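Hey team,

Filing this mostly as a record. A colleague (T.K.) asked me to run one chain through the structure pipeline before their review meeting, and I want the input and output archived in the tracker in case anyone asks later how it was produced. No errors, nothing strange. Just documentation.

Input sequence:
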Amino acid sequence: MYSNEQKRSTLSISGYSPDSVIDNKDDSAFKTRSAWVKDGKKMQVAANISIDLTNQPRVLLNNCNMKLTAYPNSDEFLIDNYEDSGVKYKFEIEEVCCIVNEMDLADGLANEMETALMEHKLFQYPLISPQVRSFFIESSRLDSPATTLYTSKMPRRIFMGLVSGEAYNGHYNKSPFNFQPFDLRDVHIDYCGVTLPGRPMNLDFGNGKCVEPYLMLQEALGHTRNNTSCNSISFDQFKSKGFTIFGFELSPVPQDTNLFDLVRPTNLSIRLNFNKPTPSGGIYCIVYAEFDQIIGLDYQRNPIIDTVV
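Output structure:
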C-alpha cells in the first residue's frame, strides 16, 4: 500500500527493496538485499511496529505498561537462497531497542485529561484490527469448496493470495510472498447473503484475462479514486510476477478509520475454481481481513478490549 517513493526511501532502512519479480535471483532488488548481508555482514534496520495499537493516529496515555513479545519464524521461511549450494544460512538478531516518541503536554491540558479520565472512567481508541486466516488446498484439485473463515462480524475489506505449500511452510529457494494465480478461474466471497463479485470472472491469467481482479485490488486500496497515491504494482506484476493479490471491499467505509459501520454478524466464506489441477504439494490460500475494533484504557491504565464492536 506504500508509494514507490516511500519504498525507495524510508522503507529502505527497514531492509526493504522493491522487487520487480518475486523468486528471481537475477532481480535487482534481490541482488541489493543480498549485498547488504553478503559474507556475513551485519545490517542495522529500523521499522515501525505493525500492531493494532501503533497503526492508529491517537497517542497513548502516560504511565501505560506495554509488553511486546516477538516470535521469529524459521530461517527457511525468513531467508531466500537460490544458489542451491546446500549451505544452511541462519538469521541472527544481536540487539533490539524500541524508540518511543513522547509528547510533553502543557500542565493545564494534562490536568484536563486526568479530570476527564476520572469522570468518564475510560478512554477509547477506535482502530482497524487485522486478522489473518489460511487454509490448505490439496494437489490435483479443480476447485476448493466454500471455506468459512470468519463467523462473528463482517470485515471492512479482505485481501487474498495463493502461495505454494513449500513456500508457506518455509523453504530456502521459495519466497513466502510469491503470490501466484495457479490458473485460478473464479473466486467468490459469500457474506450476509451476498456474493462478491456478482458474476463469474472466468479468469485466464495465461492470456492476460485478469483486468477485473486487478482493478478490484486497486479499488480496495483506494488508488482508483485519486491521482495522488499508488502502490506501484503494475498489471504485468499482478498477472505473472508474484503480485497476484485479490482485494474485496465489503463495507461502505472500507478505508476511513474515523467511521465505523454498523455491526453485521455473518459467516464469511471463500470459494475457488481453477482452470487446471492444483500443483503437486498443494497450495495455501492466505486471507487478510480488517475489522472495526475499540481498545479502552480505564483510569488505572488497564486495557479493555471489546472483540465485538
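Quick notes for T.K.: The helical segments are 4-7, 28-37, 75-78, 107-120, 165-169, 211-221, 235-240. The beta strands are 122-137, 143-150, 157-164, 184-191, 194-196, 245-249, 268-274, 283-298, 303-306.
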